[in-house]
Amino acid sequence: MVINFKENTEELLVERLLKGFDHTRMVSWARLMLDSGRYAESLILLAGMGKAAPEEIEKYFLLSIGELELNIPKDTASQLREYANDIALRVLNGEMSQDYGFLQMLKVARVAGRDFRYAGFPEIEEDLDNLVYGRKTRRDGLTPENQKTYIREEFKLFSTMEMLDIPLSARQQEYCMICGKLSTPFARKKYSVSRPFLYHVMSCDHCRSERLKSSSQHFVKRKIIESYALQGC
Prior knowledge:
The structure is a single chain. This protein is mostly helical and 233 residues long. It folds into three domains: 5-68, no CATH class; 76-164, no CATH class; 174-214, no CATH class. Helix content is 54%, strand content 8%. It has helices at residues 5-15, 24-35, 41-47, 54-68, 76-92, 98-112, 120-132, 147-164, 168-171, 218-231, and strands at residues 174-176, 182-183, 186-191, 198-203, 212-213. A hairpin with a 5-residue loop joins strand 1 and strand 2. Helix 5 (76-92) runs antiparallel to helix 6.
């Protein structure tokens, strides 16, 4: 069996930030590394830390990564992005099951917090729950019957946006159904004869229409990709 040590390490780096993480997995990782012929002083110490405090285990895990020179980014945001891109490519290439890849992307999104880059995956999970309970969904076209195809398309769109390195500001554009342009919506004041007398609505920055389709929609993501690709030509 061929073991992808870089992938296993990235997975642990992400999951260690989740509540309830079992730090003994890092000890098992160290022992697997040693069995494969890898060597580092911190790795040897880590392999014998089965009963050590989680903080101590994590300290030597991070030291081992540096000593082994696994070419993994040091900052969390870069680690998440590299791991997410690896997951997407492996799912699309058939090297990882889509169900497992989807679960890993949900973990990435949880660790990343409000990073819009990964928001599509938890949105799909939420909408699948909404479908089960008969609630309104955020995304058009998602059904229990086509969820596998829909999730695969999400992986394709995510991977394409990452390969093109589309800025997050561009990925958050919405599509105006009136003027047919991608828009960065703005809050426009509106007045009413009843309460609330003054309120705000998000409007197209081209024609001021309120008929906007969100960047969650797959057809909007495709338009963003097409627009950005044309700019690069």
